[in-house]
Amino acid sequence: VCSSDLFESPGASDFVYKPIINGVELTTKPILLIFFSVFLISTFFIFSSRKALVVPTKLQFVGESIYSFVRNDIGKDVIGHDFQKFVPFLFSIFTFVLTNNLFGIIPLIQFPTMSHIGFPVALTFFVYIVFHSVAIKKHGLFKYLKDMMFMPGIPKIMYVILAPLEFATYFLIRPLTLAMRLFGNMFAGHLLLILFKSEEHTSELQSHWYISYA
Question: What is the DSSP string of 81-149?
Fold first, then answer.
């Protein structure tokens, strides 16, 4: 028996799960984990904030710490002026992605749902709509496109190259890379875990084969 015969390399097929209920796609493991994450997040923050105290309990402290991080380190520091109205959206995205990524290292669950490209694409769609709609509402469509595509202080001849490039960057490339970055990190990480597990199992089979042969 060759050692290569004992090893089955992991791949995209390891990320495909059959529905628990035959014919009902909503009962696959990734989708059930998405619903579970929403339930988990909602339950945690309801219980951590329903009896808020001046001197917070441990649960309240954790909940407030997560909110403060999103509000100050993401909303205030990145957006700056008039950031407060975006905090609920940022907070929802942050906790949702964090929880679903942590599923990849939790025993028994051990599957990051963002390793399915459809979920990052859906999140990117909402971010895409919010980002451009806010910009168009504030500046107007014409001024928004003008400021984006025709940056000041650049020789006019360069606009022939830069204008379509900037348009493609904001409307095509950034949404694609935003989704692919999250998907790629989770997919690659989980694939490595499967690989390590497969190698461990293969080593056990090899040891058993050598002992039996001896």
Answer: TT-GGGHHHHHHHHHHHHHHHHGGGSTTT---GGGSTHHHHHHHHHHHHHHHHHHHHHH-HHHHHHHHH
CB contact at 8 A, 2 and 206: no
Three-class SS of residue 150? coil
Two tokens, residue 45 = 């923050």
Q: What is the pTM of this model?
A: 0.81
List, for residues 80-131, the tens digit of each pLDDT value. 888 999 999 999 999 999 999 999 888 888 899 999 999 999 999 999 999 9
Q: What is the C-alpha separation between 85 and 98, in angstroms, rounded?
A: 21
For the chain, the farthest-separated pair of C-alpha atoms sits apart, in whole angstroms, at 79
Contacts 24+ apart (CB under 8 A), 172-178: 175/124, 175/125, 175/127, 175/128, 178/120, 178/124, 178/127
149-155 LR contacts (CB < 8 Å, sep 24+) = none
Spatial separation of the C-alpha atoms in residues 38 and 151, rounded to whole Å:
42
In this predicted structure, the answer to whether residue 209 has a pLDDT above a threshold of 60 is no
Judge contact between 129 and 188, C-beta under 8 A. no
